[in-house]
Design brief:
Blueprint lengths: L1 E3 L2 E3 L5 E12 L3 E12 L14 H9 L4 E15 L2 E14 L9 E13 L2
Antiparallel strand pairs: 1-2, 3-4, 4-5, 5-6, 6-7
Length: 123
């Protein structure tokens, strides 16, 4: 905690993260990979953004000083050997991000499903 005359700053981190991953080989021809990531930050535990501050600048900045959020991303990938030096890869990931406090009355909430495919070549 840093203190300056009339001001106090406190930095609180409540980040909780879990990652589960699994990988298996499929009959020497391929590899399957699956995983799940969850991250949550509870911020500093405030239930309201401005803490009842009457100073306009302080009330605005109070909301910028805490970042409660959650993030989740399950994913899967399959890699199949085409030749000794070439592989086909295909994968999928679901992405979800949510933030509890709003900036200018906007609460960010993003989600997407992304798929990809590629060919890798070793030399």
């Amino acid at each position: 905690m840093n203190s300056f005359p009339g001001y106090t700053s406190q930095y609180v981190s409540n980040i909780h993260t879990v990652s589960l991953m699994a990988r298996t080989t499929l009959k020497r021809r391929g590899t399957f990979y699956a995983g799940y990531n969850i991250t949550r930050d509870t911020g500093d535990g405030r239930s309201v953004q401005n803490l009842g501050l009457t100073n306009t600048a302080a009330a605005y900045l109070a909301g910028l000083n805490t970042f409660p959020m959650s993030y989740q991303a399950p994913q899967a990938r399959l890699s199949i050997k085409i030749t000794e030096k070439m592989r086909w890869n295909g994968g999928w990931e679901f992405y979800r991000y949510n933030q509890k406090f709003a900036y200018f009355a906007y609460q960010p909430y993003y989600r997407a499903q992304t798929g990809y495919t590629s060919i890798s070549w070793a030399f």
